[in-house]
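re: that chain from earlier
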Amino acid sequence: MASTRPSIEQHPDLLALRAEYERTTATNRGQAIEAMGLVTGTYLAASPWIVGFNGLSTIAVGNLIAGIAYAMLMGGVGRAFERTHSMAWAAAIIGLWTIISPWCIAGNVSTTRTIVNNVVVGVIALLLALAAASMRPGTGRGKSSDMRGADMRGPTGGSRI
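^ sequence. v structure.
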């Protein structure tokens, strides 16, 4: 006898969680964090040419790679929040790297321009990534969908676990 049970993709709890993730990223806060993250990553990638330290090739390439990676990580937060939310921590590490990179990259790249640029952009990137990581479904005003007290019994009264 074949079972007609629906797949896990159709489970009511999973559908509710996905809807909650969608509501979380549709907020003004979620959209602002994503937009500012994309702008920050784009600026970080282009900053050697904007600020004028593109002659220092090691840090210029470092900023280019870090900026592209940061923009890609932060850009995914709004489109696929349920899968990329935890990647915001990787974006925070990129922000931290941006702050310390003028002193860590080989060569004499710790000029006033590189230090000021990378520290300011790194702090902004770190704060945005932490804000993205702190976005949790159900933590907004008026939401009461906390699953911690959920009933763990199945439809027959037995344990689902």
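Residues 22 and 81 are 8 Å apart (CA to CA).
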